[in-house]
Design brief:
Strand content: 15-25%
Structural class: alpha+beta
Shape: rod-shaped
CATH topology of the domain at 324-470: Heat Shock Protein 90
Order of helices and strands: HHEEEEEHHHEHEEHEEHHEE
Length: about 475
């Protein structure tokens, strides 16, 4: 139906539609809520686990450091009381007592030569500044370096003392903590994402119920109401407020429809009687002037009766009457019936009527109302398409919807005037000098809404194209 539209293959659809859905979800309020909830959970969980990891690591390291500091203090006290000889003997004694344990000790003289300990030499570049440091060193009799936490200090006689401890077990325990906390962090992220999505779905379901009700009301189902659970929360109060508003709208629209329907129905009888009286008077009079006047009255009375009939039909269609009479219909056959009925009139008016629709096209619709709509559109084209010579009726399925188009190649309607043409009793002739009621397109719109669709006016280049979109639900 839509000209010059590039066709997309299945592969292009698969590539574009998911990304568009995700992009639309990311821009939606629900998407932003899910993202914010996940971010908050991420920051809180990440902060807590990071604190636990740092605290556990500090605790393990602090225990080793405290043990090394205690050993250093004992040895320094012994050196002050007994000198280097006593310190050397204490170091030897400790190694005999704790052989194979994690202790690291080294005593050197003022020239840096080792006196006692389990390190072969003083570590290069290590200053005896009393600071705790962790480095990899070789113990005597070991083939591989080991991570050690050491405290190097300078003695009063110029010698140096290195007190330390192998911290490989502590570092391994720290790595185990880190791995466990990393796994816990990943699991918490998955759980946080799941909770955020679940909350988003709950909110989306609440909003979707309101949106679905609004959509149903928009197509004429004024009896629909937003589901409420009586919980008294914000969504429940919103639903109750919307339902109260819909009750009021339903009452006002019902009164208006009853008034319109009653007025149109009550006026049809006197207008019909007026037409009958005029016809009888025309048959009885022989005065040409009187006959001309009666003919004008007869024409205006028929116009009035047609307006009342159309107004009554619009009112009943907008009220939903006939919605249960939609049946699967051969659309091509329906268009050919319109062509057969209006073909002679179209030819007499100097137009050619062309029909284009797939023979296998079947769609559920109210056949009589759609036929009346197409008939009105053909009559409008005959009346307003001055200078044109072609009227086209076409139908096609697009995205599951039925699109019926009635197009002509006349002067068309300017884009800025098309909204006025769709209004009820809308007339593009400000002086209303030309006959017409302004109800034709209103009927089309009412019929389209009965089929959950709408009416649009487009440029036919040249001319006007009226598009009826009919949906299954």
């Amino acid at each position: 139906m839509k000209a010059n539209r590039p066709k997309k293959g299945p592969l292009a659809i698969r590539k574009t539609l998911p990304s568009r859905r995700w992009f639309g979800f990311a821009r939606s309020t629900i998407g932003r809520f899910v993202g914010l909830a996940f971010l908050c959970q991420f920051l809180v969980t990440g902060g807590v686990l990071l604190f636990v990891q740092q605290a556990s690591q500090r605790t393990v390291v602090a225990a080793d450091r405290q043990a090394v500091e205690d050993a250093r203090d004992d040895l320094l006290a012994l050196h002050r009381s007994g000198g280097t000889a006593a310190l050397r003997a204490e170091i030897a004694r400790r190694f005999r007592a704790i052989e194979g344990e994690r202790a690291v000790l080294l005593l050197t003289d003022a020239a840096g030569r080792p006196i006692s300990g389990n390190l072969g030499a003083w570590p290069a570049g290590l200053r005896a500044d009393g600071r705790w440091q962790i480095m990899s060193l070789y113990r005597t009799g070991r083939d591989a370096p080991e991570p050690m936490g050491v405290i190097p200090v300078k003695l009063g006689d110029g010698g140096q003392l290195l007190t330390g401890m192998v911290v490989s077990n502590s570092l391994q325990l720290t790595r185990i903590y880190e791995e466990a906390l990393t796994v816990a962090f990943v699991m918490s992220l998955v759980l946080a994402l799941g909770i955020a999505i679940m909350l988003g779905r709950i909110l989306a379901r609440q909003v979707s119920d309101i949106a679905a009700t609004a959509n149903d009301v928009a197509v004429g189902a004024l009896d629909r109401r937003v589901p409420t659970d009586g919980s008294g929360d914000a969504f429940d109060r919103l639903g109750q407020s919307i339902n109260a508003m819909l009750e009021r709208i339903d009452a006002l629209v019902t009164q208006l429809r009853m008034m319109t329907d009653g007025l149109a129905h009550d006026l049809k009888s006197p207008v019909t009687r007026l037409i009958s009286v005029v016809e009888q008077a025309s048959a009885q009079t022989r005065d040409d002037t009187a006959l001309d006047a009666l003919e004008k009255v007869h024409h205006e009375a028929q116009t009035l009766r047609s307006m009342l009939t159309t107004a009554l039909l619009i009112s009943r269609t907008e009220a939903g009457f006939g919605g249960d009479r939609r049946r699967d219909t051969q659309v091509a056959e329906l268009l050919r019936d319109v062509e057969e009925i209006y073909g002679p009139l179209v030819e007499d008016s100097g137009f050619a009527l062309a029909v284009s629709a797939p023979d296998a096209l079947v769609f559920p619709l109210h056949r009589e109302l759609v036929s009346q709509s197409l008939a009105n559109l053909v009559e409008n084209a005959l009346y307003y398409a001055e200078g044109g010579d072609r009227i086209e009726l076409s139908a096609a399925i697009e995205n599951g919807d039925l699109l019926i188009a009635v197009a002509d190649n006349g002067p068309g309607i300017p884009a800025e005037s098309r909204p006025a043409a769709l209004r009820r009793f809308g007339r593009l002739d400000p002086a209303r000098g030309r006959p017409g009621s302004g109800l034709g397109l209103s009927l089309e719109e009412a019929v389209a809404r009965l089929h959950h669709g709408g009416v649009a006016l487009a440029d036919n280049g040249p001319g006007l194209k009226v598009l009826l979109t009919l949906r299954r639900s």
